[in-house]
UniProtKB/TrEMBL annotation:
This is beta-N-acetylhexosaminidase. Belongs to the glycosyl hydrolase 20 family. InterPro entries: Beta_hexosaminidase_sua/sub, GH, Glyco_hydro_20_cat, Hex-like_dom2, HEX_bac_N. CDD domains: GH20_chitobiase-like. It comes from the Bacteria. Residues 454-468 have a biased composition (Low complexity). Residues 70-418 form the Glycoside hydrolase family 20 catalytic domain. It catalyses: Hydrolysis of terminal non-reducing N-acetyl-D-hexosamine residues in N-acetyl-beta-D-hexosaminides. SUPFAM superfamilies: (Trans)glycosidases, beta-N-acetylhexosaminidase-like domain. Its EC number is 3.2.1.52. Residues 454-479 are annotated as: Disordered.
Protein backbone atom coordinates (compact mmCIF):
# COMPACT_ATOMS: atom_id res chain seq x y z
CA UNK A 1 0.00 0.00 0.00
CA UNK A 2 1.33 3.39 -0.97
CA UNK A 3 0.37 7.02 -1.53
CA UNK A 4 0.71 8.60 -4.96
CA UNK A 5 -0.13 12.33 -4.95
CA UNK A 6 -0.81 12.10 -8.68
CA UNK A 7 -4.07 10.34 -7.82
CA UNK A 8 -7.00 12.49 -6.69
CA UNK A 9 -7.77 13.04 -3.02
CA UNK A 10 -9.57 9.96 -1.63
CA UNK A 11 -9.05 8.22 -4.97
CA UNK A 12 -7.28 4.87 -5.25
CA UNK A 13 -6.00 2.19 -7.61
CA UNK A 14 -6.52 -1.43 -6.60
CA UNK A 15 -4.70 -4.16 -8.53
CA UNK A 16 -5.17 -7.85 -7.75
CA UNK A 17 -2.90 -10.42 -9.37
CA UNK A 18 -1.23 -13.77 -8.74
CA UNK A 19 1.15 -12.23 -6.23
CA UNK A 20 -1.55 -10.50 -4.17
CA UNK A 21 -3.24 -7.10 -4.02
CA UNK A 22 -1.68 -3.65 -4.34
CA UNK A 23 -3.49 -0.48 -3.27
CA UNK A 24 -2.25 2.99 -4.14
CA UNK A 25 -4.15 6.03 -2.93
CA UNK A 26 -4.03 9.72 -3.63
CA UNK A 27 -3.76 10.07 0.15
CA UNK A 28 -4.19 7.88 3.21
CA UNK A 29 -7.96 8.13 2.87
CA UNK A 30 -7.71 6.82 -0.67
CA UNK A 31 -5.71 3.83 0.55
CA UNK A 32 -8.38 3.18 3.17
CA UNK A 33 -11.22 3.28 0.61
CA UNK A 34 -9.24 0.93 -1.60
CA UNK A 35 -9.08 -1.48 1.32
CA UNK A 36 -12.87 -1.31 1.59
CA UNK A 37 -13.16 -2.34 -2.05
CA UNK A 38 -10.76 -5.24 -1.48
CA UNK A 39 -12.91 -6.25 1.47
CA UNK A 40 -15.92 -6.40 -0.84
CA UNK A 41 -14.04 -8.74 -3.17
CA UNK A 42 -13.23 -11.06 -0.26
CA UNK A 43 -16.91 -11.86 0.23
CA UNK A 44 -19.47 -11.38 3.03
CA UNK A 45 -17.42 -13.29 5.62
CA UNK A 46 -14.86 -10.49 5.51
CA UNK A 47 -17.45 -8.34 7.33
CA UNK A 48 -17.69 -10.60 10.36
CA UNK A 49 -15.82 -9.73 13.53
CA UNK A 50 -14.04 -13.09 13.58
CA UNK A 51 -13.29 -15.58 10.78
CA UNK A 52 -15.67 -18.53 10.54
CA UNK A 53 -14.02 -20.36 7.63
CA UNK A 54 -10.72 -20.16 5.71
CA UNK A 55 -10.33 -17.06 3.57
CA UNK A 56 -10.84 -17.61 -0.18
CA UNK A 57 -7.69 -18.80 -1.92
CA UNK A 58 -8.43 -17.02 -5.17
CA UNK A 59 -9.86 -13.68 -6.15
CA UNK A 60 -10.67 -12.15 -9.51
CA UNK A 61 -7.74 -10.20 -10.95
CA UNK A 62 -9.16 -6.73 -11.54
CA UNK A 63 -7.55 -3.33 -11.70
CA UNK A 64 -9.94 -0.79 -10.23
CA UNK A 65 -9.38 2.96 -10.31
CA UNK A 66 -11.97 4.96 -8.44
CA UNK A 67 -12.53 8.31 -6.77
CA UNK A 68 -15.47 9.98 -5.03
CA UNK A 69 -17.75 12.48 -6.71
CA UNK A 70 -18.24 14.51 -3.51
CA UNK A 71 -15.91 15.46 -0.67
CA UNK A 72 -18.79 15.43 1.88
CA UNK A 73 -20.58 12.07 1.96
CA UNK A 74 -22.51 12.34 5.15
CA UNK A 75 -24.88 10.67 7.55
CA UNK A 76 -26.72 12.63 10.23
CA UNK A 77 -27.33 10.59 13.34
CA UNK A 78 -29.81 12.10 15.79
CA UNK A 79 -28.83 11.03 19.30
CA UNK A 80 -30.83 13.84 20.91
CA UNK A 81 -34.44 12.67 20.44
CA UNK A 82 -33.58 9.11 21.51
CA UNK A 83 -30.21 8.77 23.15
CA UNK A 84 -27.75 6.36 21.54
CA UNK A 85 -24.86 5.29 23.77
CA UNK A 86 -21.26 5.45 22.63
CA UNK A 87 -21.05 1.83 21.48
CA UNK A 88 -23.97 2.36 19.11
CA UNK A 89 -22.29 5.39 17.53
CA UNK A 90 -19.04 3.43 17.09
CA UNK A 91 -21.00 0.68 15.32
CA UNK A 92 -22.48 3.16 12.85
CA UNK A 93 -18.99 4.50 12.15
CA UNK A 94 -18.02 0.97 11.10
CA UNK A 95 -21.08 0.80 8.85
CA UNK A 96 -20.26 4.20 7.36
CA UNK A 97 -16.69 3.12 6.61
CA UNK A 98 -17.95 0.00 4.86
CA UNK A 99 -20.04 2.26 2.60
CA UNK A 100 -17.27 4.87 2.01
CA UNK A 101 -19.17 7.62 3.85
CA UNK A 102 -16.83 10.14 5.43
CA UNK A 103 -18.82 12.68 7.52
CA UNK A 104 -20.82 11.83 10.64
CA UNK A 105 -23.08 14.76 11.48
CA UNK A 106 -23.83 14.18 15.17
CA UNK A 107 -27.06 15.89 16.28
CA UNK A 108 -26.30 16.34 19.98
CA UNK A 109 -28.95 18.75 21.31
CA UNK A 110 -32.64 19.32 20.83
CA UNK A 111 -35.86 20.09 22.70
CA UNK A 112 -36.04 16.48 23.91
CA UNK A 113 -32.52 16.13 25.26
CA UNK A 114 -28.98 17.51 25.62
CA UNK A 115 -26.39 14.77 25.00
CA UNK A 116 -22.93 16.33 25.38
CA UNK A 117 -21.20 16.93 28.72
CA UNK A 118 -20.34 20.62 29.24
CA UNK A 119 -18.28 20.85 32.41
CA UNK A 120 -18.81 24.58 32.94
CA UNK A 121 -22.60 24.13 32.65
CA UNK A 122 -23.35 20.85 34.47
CA UNK A 123 -27.14 21.30 34.55
CA UNK A 124 -27.23 20.81 30.78
CA UNK A 125 -26.81 17.10 31.44
CA UNK A 126 -28.02 16.92 35.05
CA UNK A 127 -31.40 18.30 33.92
CA UNK A 128 -31.37 18.66 30.14
CA UNK A 129 -30.35 15.08 29.35
CA UNK A 130 -33.48 13.55 30.94
CA UNK A 131 -37.19 13.67 30.16
CA UNK A 132 -39.89 12.21 32.37
CA UNK A 133 -41.76 10.38 29.59
CA UNK A 134 -41.83 10.01 25.79
CA UNK A 135 -44.58 10.27 23.24
CA UNK A 136 -44.90 7.18 21.06
CA UNK A 137 -45.36 8.18 17.45
CA UNK A 138 -47.96 10.79 16.55
CA UNK A 139 -51.73 10.83 16.76
CA UNK A 140 -54.65 12.08 18.81
CA UNK A 141 -55.10 11.18 21.59
CA UNK A 142 -51.36 10.78 22.20
CA UNK A 143 -49.83 7.49 23.32
CA UNK A 144 -47.13 7.69 25.99
CA UNK A 145 -44.26 5.60 27.25
CA UNK A 146 -44.27 6.68 30.90
CA UNK A 147 -40.69 5.57 31.55
CA UNK A 148 -38.11 8.36 31.97
CA UNK A 149 -35.62 8.50 29.10
CA UNK A 150 -32.20 10.05 28.74
CA UNK A 151 -28.45 9.85 28.85
CA UNK A 152 -25.43 11.71 27.51
CA UNK A 153 -21.90 11.20 26.29
CA UNK A 154 -19.03 12.34 28.46
CA UNK A 155 -16.36 14.42 26.83
CA UNK A 156 -14.00 11.45 26.87
CA UNK A 157 -16.67 9.28 25.24
CA UNK A 158 -16.93 11.84 22.46
CA UNK A 159 -13.15 12.05 22.11
CA UNK A 160 -13.14 8.28 21.68
CA UNK A 161 -15.82 8.57 18.99
CA UNK A 162 -13.79 11.26 17.20
CA UNK A 163 -10.60 9.15 17.34
CA UNK A 164 -12.42 6.00 16.19
CA UNK A 165 -13.90 7.96 13.29
CA UNK A 166 -10.54 9.49 12.33
CA UNK A 167 -8.98 6.02 12.10
CA UNK A 168 -11.64 5.34 9.45
CA UNK A 169 -11.11 8.69 7.69
CA UNK A 170 -14.47 9.96 8.91
CA UNK A 171 -14.92 13.50 10.24
CA UNK A 172 -17.40 14.04 13.09
CA UNK A 173 -19.28 17.34 12.76
CA UNK A 174 -21.05 18.29 16.02
CA UNK A 175 -24.40 20.09 16.03
CA UNK A 176 -25.41 22.37 18.90
CA UNK A 177 -28.86 23.74 18.10
CA UNK A 178 -29.67 27.47 18.46
CA UNK A 179 -31.75 29.61 18.69
CA UNK A 180 -34.61 27.11 18.22
CA UNK A 181 -34.81 23.46 19.28
CA UNK A 182 -33.45 24.65 22.64
CA UNK A 183 -36.11 23.63 25.16
CA UNK A 184 -33.83 21.15 26.96
CA UNK A 185 -31.19 23.86 27.45
CA UNK A 186 -33.79 26.35 28.69
CA UNK A 187 -35.23 23.76 31.09
CA UNK A 188 -31.74 23.41 32.56
CA UNK A 189 -30.96 27.15 32.59
CA UNK A 190 -34.24 29.12 32.53
CA UNK A 191 -32.43 32.45 32.04
CA UNK A 192 -31.68 31.39 28.45
CA UNK A 193 -35.36 31.68 27.53
CA UNK A 194 -37.69 34.60 26.95
CA UNK A 195 -38.41 35.17 30.63
CA UNK A 196 -40.47 38.31 29.97
CA UNK A 197 -42.96 36.20 28.02
CA UNK A 198 -42.87 32.73 29.60
CA UNK A 199 -42.26 31.42 33.11
CA UNK A 200 -39.26 29.42 31.97
CA UNK A 201 -38.55 28.25 35.53
CA UNK A 202 -41.50 25.88 35.12
CA UNK A 203 -40.32 24.53 31.78
CA UNK A 204 -39.32 20.86 31.44
CA UNK A 205 -37.43 18.92 28.79
CA UNK A 206 -39.84 18.28 25.92
CA UNK A 207 -41.63 14.93 26.03
CA UNK A 208 -43.39 15.12 22.66
CA UNK A 209 -42.47 15.87 19.06
CA UNK A 210 -42.89 18.76 16.68
CA UNK A 211 -41.53 22.31 16.81
CA UNK A 212 -41.25 23.77 20.31
CA UNK A 213 -42.21 27.44 20.76
CA UNK A 214 -39.43 27.88 23.33
CA UNK A 215 -36.48 29.64 21.72
CA UNK A 216 -33.40 31.36 23.08
CA UNK A 217 -33.72 34.98 24.14
CA UNK A 218 -31.65 37.57 22.24
CA UNK A 219 -30.22 38.80 25.53
CA UNK A 220 -26.55 39.53 26.22
CA UNK A 221 -26.02 36.51 28.48
CA UNK A 222 -27.20 33.97 25.88
CA UNK A 223 -24.37 34.32 23.32
CA UNK A 224 -21.86 34.32 26.20
CA UNK A 225 -23.39 31.10 27.53
CA UNK A 226 -23.14 29.39 24.14
CA UNK A 227 -19.61 30.69 23.61
CA UNK A 228 -18.65 28.79 26.77
CA UNK A 229 -20.49 25.71 25.47
CA UNK A 230 -18.79 25.88 22.08
CA UNK A 231 -15.38 26.47 23.63
CA UNK A 232 -15.65 23.02 25.18
CA UNK A 233 -17.15 21.54 22.01
CA UNK A 234 -14.18 22.78 19.94
CA UNK A 235 -11.80 21.09 22.38
CA UNK A 236 -13.50 17.76 21.66
CA UNK A 237 -14.18 18.02 17.93
CA UNK A 238 -11.35 19.11 15.60
CA UNK A 239 -13.65 19.25 12.55
CA UNK A 240 -13.41 22.33 10.36
CA UNK A 241 -17.21 22.68 10.32
CA UNK A 242 -19.43 23.16 13.37
CA UNK A 243 -23.20 22.94 12.88
CA UNK A 244 -25.34 25.36 14.89
CA UNK A 245 -28.80 24.35 13.64
CA UNK A 246 -30.70 27.58 13.01
CA UNK A 247 -33.86 25.82 11.83
CA UNK A 248 -37.53 25.82 12.80
CA UNK A 249 -37.40 28.87 15.02
CA UNK A 250 -40.95 30.09 15.84
CA UNK A 251 -41.27 33.87 16.06
CA UNK A 252 -44.12 34.16 18.58
CA UNK A 253 -42.03 34.63 21.73
CA UNK A 254 -39.73 37.14 20.06
CA UNK A 255 -42.78 39.01 18.78
CA UNK A 256 -44.12 39.31 22.34
CA UNK A 257 -40.78 39.92 24.06
CA UNK A 258 -39.77 43.45 25.01
CA UNK A 259 -36.17 42.23 25.23
CA UNK A 260 -36.31 40.95 21.65
CA UNK A 261 -37.86 44.15 20.38
CA UNK A 262 -35.20 46.18 22.18
CA UNK A 263 -32.50 44.06 20.55
CA UNK A 264 -34.01 44.68 17.12
CA UNK A 265 -33.92 48.45 17.72
CA UNK A 266 -30.45 48.47 19.31
CA UNK A 267 -28.88 46.51 16.45
CA UNK A 268 -30.71 48.42 13.72
CA UNK A 269 -32.45 45.25 12.55
CA UNK A 270 -35.55 45.35 10.39
CA UNK A 271 -37.48 42.38 11.70
CA UNK A 272 -37.40 39.00 13.44
CA UNK A 273 -35.73 37.34 10.44
CA UNK A 274 -32.76 39.65 10.92
CA UNK A 275 -32.85 38.83 14.64
CA UNK A 276 -32.30 35.20 13.63
CA UNK A 277 -29.41 36.41 11.47
CA UNK A 278 -28.00 38.33 14.46
CA UNK A 279 -27.54 35.01 16.27
CA UNK A 280 -26.03 33.29 13.25
CA UNK A 281 -23.66 36.11 12.31
CA UNK A 282 -22.37 36.33 15.88
CA UNK A 283 -21.32 32.68 15.92
CA UNK A 284 -20.08 32.78 12.34
CA UNK A 285 -17.57 35.43 13.39
CA UNK A 286 -16.80 33.69 16.69
CA UNK A 287 -16.06 30.37 14.98
CA UNK A 288 -14.04 32.02 12.19
CA UNK A 289 -11.81 33.70 14.78
CA UNK A 290 -10.98 30.20 16.02
CA UNK A 291 -10.25 28.75 12.60
CA UNK A 292 -13.60 26.98 12.20
CA UNK A 293 -16.56 27.36 9.85
CA UNK A 294 -20.23 27.56 10.67
CA UNK A 295 -22.73 25.39 8.85
CA UNK A 296 -26.47 25.59 9.47
CA UNK A 297 -29.80 24.43 8.08
CA UNK A 298 -31.14 26.51 5.21
CA UNK A 299 -33.10 28.82 7.54
CA UNK A 300 -29.76 30.52 8.22
CA UNK A 301 -30.46 32.29 4.93
CA UNK A 302 -33.20 34.28 6.67
CA UNK A 303 -32.21 37.87 7.24
CA UNK A 304 -29.06 37.47 5.16
CA UNK A 305 -26.45 34.73 5.23
CA UNK A 306 -23.43 35.19 7.47
CA UNK A 307 -20.05 35.87 5.89
CA UNK A 308 -18.50 32.41 5.96
CA UNK A 309 -21.45 30.16 6.64
CA UNK A 310 -22.18 27.00 4.68
CA UNK A 311 -25.70 25.65 4.21
CA UNK A 312 -27.22 22.21 4.73
CA UNK A 313 -30.23 22.37 2.42
CA UNK A 314 -33.00 20.30 4.03
CA UNK A 315 -36.27 21.93 2.95
CA UNK A 316 -35.59 21.05 -0.67
CA UNK A 317 -33.14 22.30 -3.27
CA UNK A 318 -34.11 25.99 -3.33
CA UNK A 319 -32.12 27.07 -0.27
CA UNK A 320 -29.03 25.26 -1.53
CA UNK A 321 -29.34 26.80 -4.98
CA UNK A 322 -29.73 30.26 -3.44
CA UNK A 323 -26.67 29.76 -1.24
CA UNK A 324 -24.54 28.34 -4.07
CA UNK A 325 -25.39 31.28 -6.31
CA UNK A 326 -24.30 33.55 -3.46
CA UNK A 327 -20.92 31.79 -3.46
CA UNK A 328 -21.48 29.67 -0.34
CA UNK A 329 -20.72 25.96 0.10
CA UNK A 330 -23.73 23.65 0.24
CA UNK A 331 -24.45 20.14 1.46
CA UNK A 332 -27.59 18.75 -0.16
CA UNK A 333 -29.87 16.79 2.18
CA UNK A 334 -33.44 17.51 1.01
CA UNK A 335 -36.04 15.86 3.22
CA UNK A 336 -38.11 14.94 0.16
CA UNK A 337 -35.27 12.70 -1.00
CA UNK A 338 -32.92 11.54 1.76
CA UNK A 339 -34.63 11.85 5.14
CA UNK A 340 -34.30 8.17 5.93
CA UNK A 341 -36.61 8.35 8.95
CA UNK A 342 -39.43 8.59 6.36
CA UNK A 343 -41.11 5.25 5.75
CA UNK A 344 -39.97 2.95 2.97
CA UNK A 345 -43.31 1.58 1.81
CA UNK A 346 -47.01 2.06 2.43
CA UNK A 347 -49.09 -0.46 4.33
CA UNK A 348 -50.45 -1.18 7.78
CA UNK A 349 -47.47 -3.37 8.70
CA UNK A 350 -44.91 -0.57 8.49
CA UNK A 351 -43.77 0.57 11.95
CA UNK A 352 -44.80 4.15 12.84
CA UNK A 353 -45.37 5.50 9.32
CA UNK A 354 -43.88 8.98 9.01
CA UNK A 355 -43.27 11.42 6.18
CA UNK A 356 -43.41 10.48 2.53
CA UNK A 357 -42.86 6.99 1.20
CA UNK A 358 -39.30 6.89 -0.11
CA UNK A 359 -38.38 3.52 -1.54
CA UNK A 360 -34.96 2.06 -2.25
CA UNK A 361 -35.52 3.00 -5.89
CA UNK A 362 -36.38 6.59 -4.90
CA UNK A 363 -33.16 7.00 -2.92
CA UNK A 364 -31.10 5.52 -5.76
CA UNK A 365 -32.58 8.22 -8.03
CA UNK A 366 -31.55 11.06 -5.71
CA UNK A 367 -29.42 13.64 -7.51
CA UNK A 368 -27.45 16.02 -5.24
CA UNK A 369 -26.55 18.40 -8.08
CA UNK A 370 -29.44 20.78 -8.88
CA UNK A 371 -30.02 20.86 -12.64
CA UNK A 372 -30.30 24.65 -12.63
CA UNK A 373 -26.66 24.87 -11.53
CA UNK A 374 -25.34 22.36 -14.08
CA UNK A 375 -22.67 23.85 -16.31
CA UNK A 376 -22.34 27.00 -14.19
CA UNK A 377 -19.54 28.15 -11.92
CA UNK A 378 -21.88 27.65 -8.98
CA UNK A 379 -22.12 23.86 -9.42
CA UNK A 380 -18.80 23.41 -7.60
CA UNK A 381 -20.37 24.95 -4.49
CA UNK A 382 -22.31 21.71 -3.94
CA UNK A 383 -19.61 20.11 -1.81
CA UNK A 384 -21.56 17.03 -0.90
CA UNK A 385 -24.69 15.16 0.06
CA UNK A 386 -26.03 13.82 3.32
CA UNK A 387 -28.67 11.33 4.43
CA UNK A 388 -30.43 12.29 7.67
CA UNK A 389 -31.67 9.85 10.31
CA UNK A 390 -33.97 11.47 12.87
CA UNK A 391 -35.03 9.32 15.79
CA UNK A 392 -38.46 10.42 17.01
CA UNK A 393 -39.85 7.05 15.88
CA UNK A 394 -36.61 5.05 16.21
CA UNK A 395 -35.97 4.35 19.87
CA UNK A 396 -33.43 1.54 19.50
CA UNK A 397 -30.54 0.39 17.34
CA UNK A 398 -32.82 -2.11 15.62
CA UNK A 399 -35.30 0.66 14.74
CA UNK A 400 -32.53 2.88 13.38
CA UNK A 401 -31.14 0.00 11.31
CA UNK A 402 -34.59 -0.71 9.90
CA UNK A 403 -35.05 2.84 8.62
CA UNK A 404 -31.51 3.35 7.38
CA UNK A 405 -30.96 0.12 5.50
CA UNK A 406 -30.88 -0.87 2.71
CA UNK A 407 -31.53 2.73 1.58
CA UNK A 408 -28.22 4.01 3.00
CA UNK A 409 -26.43 1.68 0.56
CA UNK A 410 -28.23 3.36 -2.34
CA UNK A 411 -27.39 6.80 -0.97
CA UNK A 412 -23.72 5.84 -0.54
CA UNK A 413 -23.45 4.83 -4.19
CA UNK A 414 -25.06 8.10 -5.27
CA UNK A 415 -22.72 10.18 -3.08
CA UNK A 416 -19.58 8.35 -4.23
CA UNK A 417 -20.20 7.60 -7.90
CA UNK A 418 -20.67 9.90 -10.86
CA UNK A 419 -23.89 8.22 -11.98
CA UNK A 420 -26.03 9.06 -15.01
CA UNK A 421 -29.04 11.33 -14.67
CA UNK A 422 -31.76 9.87 -12.40
CA UNK A 423 -33.99 8.75 -15.28
CA UNK A 424 -31.06 6.89 -16.84
CA UNK A 425 -29.84 5.04 -13.76
CA UNK A 426 -29.95 1.28 -13.88
CA UNK A 427 -31.77 0.49 -10.65
CA UNK A 428 -32.27 -3.13 -11.64
CA UNK A 429 -28.50 -3.56 -11.86
CA UNK A 430 -28.16 -2.02 -8.41
CA UNK A 431 -30.89 -4.30 -7.04
CA UNK A 432 -29.19 -7.38 -8.51
CA UNK A 433 -25.89 -6.40 -6.89
CA UNK A 434 -27.68 -5.97 -3.57
CA UNK A 435 -29.25 -9.42 -3.91
CA UNK A 436 -26.02 -11.06 -5.07
CA UNK A 437 -23.72 -9.78 -2.33
CA UNK A 438 -24.62 -6.75 -0.30
CA UNK A 439 -27.54 -8.10 1.72
CA UNK A 440 -25.20 -10.92 2.78
CA UNK A 441 -22.63 -8.32 3.89
CA UNK A 442 -25.30 -6.51 5.92
CA UNK A 443 -26.30 -9.83 7.47
CA UNK A 444 -22.66 -10.49 8.41
CA UNK A 445 -22.48 -7.06 10.07
CA UNK A 446 -25.67 -7.75 12.02
CA UNK A 447 -27.74 -5.01 10.38
CA UNK A 448 -31.48 -5.29 11.02
CA UNK A 449 -32.42 -3.89 7.58
CA UNK A 450 -35.88 -3.86 6.04
CA UNK A 451 -36.30 -6.69 3.53
CA UNK A 452 -37.85 -5.55 0.26
CA UNK A 453 -40.67 -8.02 0.98
CA UNK A 454 -41.67 -6.02 4.04
CA UNK A 455 -41.12 -5.94 7.80
CA UNK A 456 -40.58 -9.13 9.73
CA UNK A 457 -43.17 -9.66 12.49
CA UNK A 458 -40.88 -8.41 15.26
CA UNK A 459 -40.28 -5.11 13.46
CA UNK A 460 -43.94 -4.05 13.37
CA UNK A 461 -45.33 -1.65 15.96
CA UNK A 462 -49.11 -2.10 16.07
CA UNK A 463 -51.04 0.50 18.03
CA UNK A 464 -48.46 3.30 17.66
CA UNK A 465 -49.81 5.98 15.29
CA UNK A 466 -47.61 7.70 12.78
CA UNK A 467 -47.79 10.86 10.70
CA UNK A 468 -47.69 9.98 6.99
CA UNK A 469 -47.58 12.97 4.63
CA UNK A 470 -50.29 13.21 2.00
CA UNK A 471 -49.50 13.51 -1.70
CA UNK A 472 -46.15 13.47 -3.50
CA UNK A 473 -43.11 15.10 -1.91
CA UNK A 474 -43.14 18.86 -2.44
CA UNK A 475 -40.41 21.37 -1.83
CA UNK A 476 -41.17 23.83 0.92
CA UNK A 477 -41.29 27.45 -0.09
CA UNK A 478 -38.15 29.26 1.01
CA UNK A 479 -38.10 32.73 2.57
Amino acid sequence: MAVDPALPSEGYRLTVGPDGATITGGDEAGVFWGRQTLRQLLGPDAYRRAPIRPAPRTLPYPTIEDEPRFAWRGLLLDVARHFMPKDGVLRYLDLMAAHKLNVLHLHLTDDQGWRVEIRSRPRLTEVGAWRRRTRLGRGDPPVWDERPHGGFCTQDDLREIVAYAAARHITVVPEIEMPGHSQAAIAAYPELGNTDVVDTARLEVATGWGVSPHVLAPADQVPRFYEDVLTEVLEIFPSRFVHIGGDERPKDQWRASATAQARIRAEGLRDKAELQSWFIRHFDRWLAERGRRLIGWDEVLEGGLAEGAAVASWQGYAGGVMAARAGRDVVMCPMQEVYLDHWQAGGDDEPVPFGWVRTLRDVYRFEPGPPELAGTEHAARIIGAQADMWTEAADSQQRVDYRLFPRLAAFAEVAWSDLPAPDERDFENFRRRMDAAHYARLDAMGVAYRPLSGPLPGRRRPGIPGLPFAGPPRERSHP
